[in-house]
Design brief:
The structure holds 2 protein chains of 2 kinds.
Chain A lengths: L1 H29 L5 H19 L1 H10 L5 H20 L6 H16 L5 H36 L3 H32 L11 E4 L2 E3 L1 H19 L1 H12 L4 H17 L3 H9 L12 H15 L7 H31 L40
Antiparallel strand pairs in A: 1-2
Chain B lengths: L5 H34 L2 H31 L7 H28 L8 H27 L4 H28 L4 H35 L2
The chains are: A mainly alpha, B mainly alpha.
Chain lengths: 379, 215
């Protein structure tokens, strides 16, 4: 049963792989600068590496927002995020898995009457905005630097094409690593506090923790999404929404990758704190919205071309609508799972060890949940 | 889609440069050929025809080879069509030069000495237009910010060619020659002038391609 619950994470991972690969390799593949086979292999490999070795930071932030402590609860949180992403996509509204999962966790907090860490919530929401602004700034700076470099270097068009291809693969790999590190929390974050996996000793000093194994599963699901469905999305996104020149795409993907990395690197956080500098919060951000930030950055440098301010308004709307929708679906879903299927969707705290998280199993509960049906109405 | 490696890309660069050199040499040989004809050095003129034919064949081979590689390795996808169009139209310049020399050879127009200077000036300006075009296309590949510096020269030489041709035709038709001869001489002025028109057409395409290439 535990592994069945994990299927919701696998589904969300598949969806992420299918939809978000385009943010990393979209233009490169659609413009035929990089072969899909190459892109898929590089993307899958690096997304798994990023998830397993760099995913802990953002997962920790989501856990601080709300530590979902029952398998059925984590299942519903993940399913609700996936459903709200699908619904928003159908309604053609800008949507982010990161925003959906935050809404779902808030829905779980509300249902389980766990306190929400508003400090963490504020940090997350501010990070979403900061990510767009930062990507725009990075893209603008990179664009100006590369343009100046090209003016001086007098590289032959054919050689520039060669360098651009190599660069697109390199930044694609970096982008995939950063995507895995930053977004794996969206896919498997809800299962982190209750991971069913135990530590796996590989060889010598190399071991994979239970959480890393969970992220490995999530990373593999993302890779599956990359191989099975991303090709279609890449053709759509690469040809329609993100029609950039390969060199501009290089700049946008590099800026996006740097920002995803900044918002997910624990090592960088430690280094910054060690040097008395303010740390960048480890928050799952939206790669699609970061890409839009990058395009806006280039647009500003090129004096207004390609800037679509309406898109920014739609994004801001999505920040409100997506979490609300995901939270509502989670709340309703948890209610159904608890009262119709009699599943344990959260645990009450056994002691004062955690002020926020309820850890007691439902069997030990002295009183029913405020949202439970009277026993005579239960099936 | 095959993968282009660094060495192959260097070889392709060399081929593009060779192609441009060939077009440039063609315009020099063309100008020399006209001069030989006007000076009445028939053997040298026929050598010029042989030389430009060789160059034209070489340009064709190089162009086909470059086009094949650009397609095979899916190079420069966003401006591939423009580059291929550019190379094909550059080829029209050397084709026009070769055809004009051959027409001189076949029809042997009897050009009075008083018009020699204008015919030679026309050929020279057309050669300059072709040379400026080669420099502009070379800049497009190597340093596209410099393209504009060469394009304006192409337009300048094309206008000069129009002026000289116009002057030449007026002089021909105001002379006491027979009408058939006048028409024949005008026909050759037109042929030479067409070379600068070809160069202007390529320059127009190049200007558009530059806008697309702008990063």
């Amino acid at each position: 049963m535990i592994y069945f619950y994990l299927l919701s994470g696998v589904f969300l991972g598949w969806s992420l792989g299918a939809n978000h690969t385009a943010n990393v390799f979209g233009t490169a593949v659609a413009s035929r600068m990089v072969r899909f086979r190459t892109a898929a292999l590089v993307c899958s490999l690096f997304v798994i590496l990023g998830a397993v070795f760099g995913g802990a930071g953002t997962a920790g932030t989501l856990e601080s927002l709300g530590a979902v402590n029952a398998m059925a609860g984590a299942f519903m949180v993940t399913v609700a995020a996936g459903l709200s992403v699908s619904l928003m996509t159908r309604m053609k509204l800008p949507v982010s898995t990161s925003q959906a999962i935050v809404g779902s966790i808030l829905g779980w907090n509300l249902f389980s009457r766990s306190a929400t860490d508003f400090h963490a919530l504020t940090r997350i929401v501010l990070s979403w905005g900061a990510a767009i602004v930062l990507t725009a700034v990075f893209a603008a700076v990179l664009y100006l630097a590369i343009r100046a470099g090209l003016k001086r270097s007098r590289v032959h068009l054919i050689r520039l094409d060669f360098y651009t291809r190599a660069g697109l693969i390199a930044v694609g790999a970096f982008g995939a690593y950063s995507l895995g590190a930053n977004n794996i929390a969206n896919v498997m974050g809800a299962f982190v506090p209750i991971t069913p996996f135990r530590e796996l000793r590989l060889f010598g000093p190399f071991t994979l923790t239970g959480v890393q194994l969970l992220f490995l599963l999530g990373g593999a699901a993302i890779a599956l999404g990359v191989y099975t469905y991303s090709s279609k999305v890449i053709q759509t996104v690469g040809n329609d929404l993100l029609k950039l020149s390969p060199l501009a795409a290089f700049v946008v993907v590099l800026a996006e990758s740097i920002v995803l990395f900044l918002f997910s690197s624990k090592g960088l956080e430690t280094w910054l704190l060690g040097h008395g500098l303010p740390a960048i919060p480890l928050v799952p951000i939206s790669s699609s919205q970061a890409v839009i930030g990058g395009i806006i950055g280039i647009g500003i440098v090129r004096r207004g071309r390609e800037i679509r301010f309406k898109v920014l308004g739609d994004i801001a709307l999505g920040w409100i609508v997506t979490p609300l929708l995901a939270g509502a679906i989670t709340f309703f879903g948890l209610f159904v799972l608890q009262n119709v299927f009699s599943l344990e969707v959260y645990r009450r705290p056994a002691s004062s060890e955690s002020a926020r998280v309820v850890r007691m199993s439902e069997a030990e509960m002295p009183r029913p949940s405020a949202f439970a049906l009277p026993s005579r109405l239960k099936p | 889609m095959s993968i282009m490696n660094f060495n192959r890309s260097k070889i392709l660069e060399t081929k593009i440069d060779d192609f441009l050199d060939t077009i440039s040499q063609g315009s020099i040989v063309f100008r020399e050929g006209i001069k030989e004809y006007l000076d009445g050095r028939t053997a040298d003129f026929e050598n010029a025809i042989a030389g430009i034919s060789k160059l034209e064949n070489r340009a064709d081979e190089l162009r086909r080879d470059v086009e094949k590689q650009i397609y095979t390795y899916s190079l420069i996808p966003e401006i591939r069509g423009d580059v291929l169009g550019l190379l094909e139209n550059m080829d029209n310049v050397i084709n026009g030069e070769k055809k004009t020399l051959i027409q001189f050879s076949v029809e042997g127009p009897d050009i009075p000495a008083e018009f020699d200077r204008d015919y030679l000036a026309l050929a020279e300006v057309c050669m300059n237009a072709a040379e400026a075009l080669v420099s502009a296309v070379r800049a497009f590949f190597h340093d596209f910010n410099m393209v504009g510096d060469h394009l304006h020269k192409v337009y300048f030489f094309e206008k000069e060619a129009d002026k000289i041709s116009d002057r030449l035709k007026r002089s021909v038709f105001h002379s006491g020659l027979e009408l058939s001869r006048k028409i024949h001489l005008r026909y050759f002025a037109l042929h030479i002038e067409n070379i600068s028109d070809h160069a202007e057409d390529v320059a127009d395409r190049l200007g558009i391609s530059c806008i697309k290439r702008r990063f």
